[in-house]
Amino acid sequence: MPISATGNNAMCSGEGRSPWAPAFAGALSRGRESGFTLIELMVVLLIIGLAAGAVVLSLPDPRGRLTDEAERFAARAVAARDLAILEGRPVAVRVTARGYAFDRRQGGAWVPLSDKSFASRPWKEGTAALVGQGATIRAAFDATGQPSAPATIVLSRSGEQVRISIAADGGVRVGV
């Protein structure tokens, strides 16, 4: 009497086997029941470990690249220069070790810009501008887009440095 869809015990042991069944059919059914060997499990764990290591190493820094932060700052400095040209009055970018802000010359004094795109911004965590202890760098763009003086801002994070240069012609460039 058959005990499964594939046959009965007699067929697995070789008794009553049909002439076209392979001689090793009994060995195959017994081998499948034994499971995985320790070596096979270790190889699978090794492959999973290598894949997980590759994923962890390829994850980007959650703070972003330092060059991206420098380019973001440079784009805002260019926008401040353009604002100075459009409004016909000086606009300055003020850089400290902890962040940067934009000011407009109004009534003989520097007044912070209230526009959201020119709001005061801190550097990302771990990033600092190398301006000296308590120092501030101010680059003021006049109505023609020329800065008051050329300036170089150096951003630093974890030993990496990126320079942002404000040239005498008003150009803002990012370089390593």
If you had to describe this structure to a student in words, what would you say it looks like?
- The strands form 2 sheets. Strands 1, 2, 3, 4 and 6 form a 5-stranded antiparallel beta sheet that branches. The protein has a 4-stranded antiparallel beta sheet with strand order 5-7-8-9, with helices on one face.
- The chain contains 4 helices and 9 strands; from the N terminus they run H-H-H-H-E-E-E-E-E-E-E-E-E.
- By secondary structure, the chain is an alpha+beta fold.
- The longest helix has 22 residues.
- Strand 1 and strand 2 form a beta hairpin.
- It is 32% helix and 25% strand.
Estimate the strand proportion: 25-35%
Major sheet size, sense and barrel closure? 5 strands, antiparallel
The best one-word shape is elongated
Average pLDDT level: 82
| Sheet/helix structural class | alpha+beta
What value does the Rg take, in angstroms? 35 Å
